[in-house]
Amino acid sequence: APEQALELAGRIRARLADGVLVGPDHYRPTMSIGIVIAGPDDVPITALRDADTAMYRAKERGRDRTEWFDPSLHRATVASFELERELRDAIERGQLHLVFQPILDLDTDEVRSCEALVRWTHPERGELGPDEFIPVAESSGLVVPLGTWVLRHALAAMKEWPNAVRVSVNLSPRQLAEPDLFALVRDALEEFGVHASRLILEVTETAVLQDPTAAARTISTLRALGLSVVIDDFGTGYTSLSFLRDYRLDGLKIDRSFITDLEHGSTAIVDAIICMSGALGLNVVAEGVETLAQLEQIRSLGCRYIQGYLVSPPVASDELPFMKLPRAATELGGRRPG
Ligand code: C2E
Ligand code: CA
Ligand code: CA
Q1: Is the pLDDT of residue 61 over 90?
Q2: Of 208, 214, 223, 282, which sits most exposed with the smallest number of CB within 10 A?
Q3: Which residues line ligand 1 (CB under 6 A)?
Q4: Protein residue whose Cα sits closest to atom 19 of ligand 1
Q5: Lowest-confidence pick of 77-86, 125-134, 209-218, 248-257
Q6: CA of 115 to the centre of ligand 1 (A)
Q7: Considering only CA atoms, which of 175, 171, 287, 275 is closest in space to residue 236?
């Protein structure tokens, strides 16, 4: 089955992620994998050729990744080329905007941080969610200028927020690998007059595993600025306990798929993640909480922060819960502004 093939590819890649010792030297080979699912009537040589095509696509897309062969590969390439061209203009033409999703602190019942999520108002197709264009942005490298746009606009939006509220911004794998990421973040914070402690950067496990040594260095220099770095979609990758400790991360966000599974009785993974996070002093956010039943389960497992439709969908900055209160009441915890 496709999932099994993908799972196997993931396991193979995870195995090599730590690198190999050849004599005294440590190497970290990259691995591009092409997968083809062949039917009983398929000619082996065709399957091999198609797997090869998929493998070359993996190389094209930056190497060290897994790609599927699919017959519409050709058509898809044309479509994504078109989307890439349009996205290039979208940034300049002001077609992007941000929405923010509150993260609720269950201990205090307050919203103390919001995740910035990008939207694209496409001239013909209307509002597009990131799942429809981030992959193209990532493979074309456009995600770097796009990410800069997101960071700057998120910081600008914070001008109107109470001082105690932080913003959480997604960093793509490409951005994490950019040599000038540190300078960019430092300068943006200074330019917008936002204290570093109000910024949280979300990185994925896959982004970190692409080059663990470089990622560790980047993460620690960023954290030295005073901001937080958390792991997004936790549990979907291959992060180990020691990884969380060694990278000195500030927290993690449990992927929505695990929260959905709670209702079907599988609490073991979420329970384990929360326990080990507590032991390591990490903040935990449960993502995609949609029902009261999930909320109660999460609360009873000891998770402190939740994000999801139950609290609020992503909304415009001026629609955030703390923006609707009279200004004097917007400072959280009853503190006065300034
Ligand atoms: P993510 O970081 O995991 O963001 C959470 C996604 O889950 C958001 O989708 C949000 O709208 C959705 N969501 C929140 N609560 C619920 C819920 O209760 N139920 C369900 N079913 N979904 C919920 P969105 O905005 O479509 O973003 C999708 C992904 O796109 C994000 O996943 C993130 O990986 C990426 N993304 C978004 N904005 C940016 C950005 O500025 N830069 C980069 N590099 N990636 C971004
Ligand atoms: Ca995120
Ligand atoms: Ca997530």
Answers
A1: no
A2: 214
A3: 101, 117-118, 129-131, 134, 143, 147, 150, 170, 172, 232-233, 256, 287-290, 308-309, 314
A4: 288
A5: 77-86
A6: 9
A7: 287
Bridge-based pairing state of the strands 33-35 and 66-68: parallel
Ligand in closest contact with the CA of 203:
2
Q: Residue 33: pLDDT above 90?
A: yes
On the question of pLDDT at 331 being above 70, the answer is no
Would you state the torsion angle of the CA atoms of residues 319, 321, 325, 329, taken in this order, to the nearest 10 degrees?
-140
Q: Output the CA 26–ligand 1 centroid distance in Å.
A: 37
Write out the two tokens for 96: 């992007």
Please name the residue that has the structure tokens 């094209």: 60
Q: Say how many Å lie between the CA of residue 48 and the centre of ligand 1.
A: 36
Which ligand 1 atom sits nearest the alpha carbon of residue 307? 15
The Å distance, Cα 338 to ligand 1 centre, comes to 32
Q: Comparing C-alpha atoms, which of 217, 199, 139, 127 is closest to residue 173?
A: 139
pLDDT band at 329 (very low <50, low <70, confident <90, very high): low
Residue nearest to atom 37 of ligand 1 (CA): 117
- Assign 75 a pLDDT band (cuts: 50, 70, 90): low
Nearest Cα neighbor of 234 from 149, 305, 333, 181 is 305
Which runs of E-coded beta strand occur in the chain?
Answer: 20-22, 25-27, 33-35, 66-68, 96-105, 110-122, 126-128, 166-170, 199-204, 228-234, 251-254, 283-287, 305-307
140 forms beta bridges with: none
- Ligand nearest to the CA of residue 117, numbered in listed order: 1
Residue 146's pLDDT band (boundaries 50, 70, 90)?
Answer: very high
Kindly report the pTM of this predicted structure: 0.79
